[in-house]
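Quick check before the chapter quiz. The format below is the same one you will see on the exam, so make sure you can read both the input and the output lines.
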Amino acid sequence: MRRVPVLCAVALGVLTVLVAARWGPLIRFDTAVSAAARRFALHHDGWRSAMSVVTHSADSRVLLPAAVLLAAALLVRRRRIGLLFLLSTAVTATAIRLALLALVHRPRPVDRLTPTSGWAFPSGHTTSSAVAAGVLIVLGCAALTGRWSRRVLVAVVGGWAVLVGVSRVALLAHWPTDVLAGWLLATAVTVALAQVLRVQRSFSTGRQASPQRDAGRSHRPEGSPEWNTSQRRTDGGASSSSPPASAPGTTAPRPNWPGA
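Here is the expected output.
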């Protein structure tokens, strides 16, 4: 897992160089996929409408209020590391994306099926949705304890981020490699900052200990004076030094005193 940010960063660097150099095989691949996507969308109105809904779910007017609400929730619950992770991930990913936009200056596809503006590489909607999904997955998996709840979270949120990237290609808002660059950028930044800030550890140390199932025992190290005192109280004095009482109808053994 520690190698994921490095591998994604290297892949993003190589992809950026190839796109900036207008490498022939890469350009032909993007052109072929975009042409096929346009033909399919023009012949399937339902598909185009669905992709439009998905792509607008990652608009700034949707993600910014959601980020503010999440930041407020983290602040109220005093999750400072989680709040720092949210803010630093968003700022870092946005800064790198804007730098790549200014560096590459890649035009978008011509026959777009949705309103767009600015340069193409890397995709802004793809990067933003992938960062949002990554933050939710990291924070959610740190807060949740159930295995299935974590899997559902990863499937739903991760699937949404993937669909946003697909919608950008389906509507010819971006070339396929623009979307790939957004995924690589978001993954590298999110995983790297999650590891540096130790988000998982901050949630696990802050989680309250679960109540003891045995209500008669206190949470003290076994063998300590406090534990021994609690144990004697729990056992109801069974460890007392007084001899046990004799059963009814029996005679207690007579002490063998010297000289008796």
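If your answer matched, good. The radius of gyration is 31 Å.
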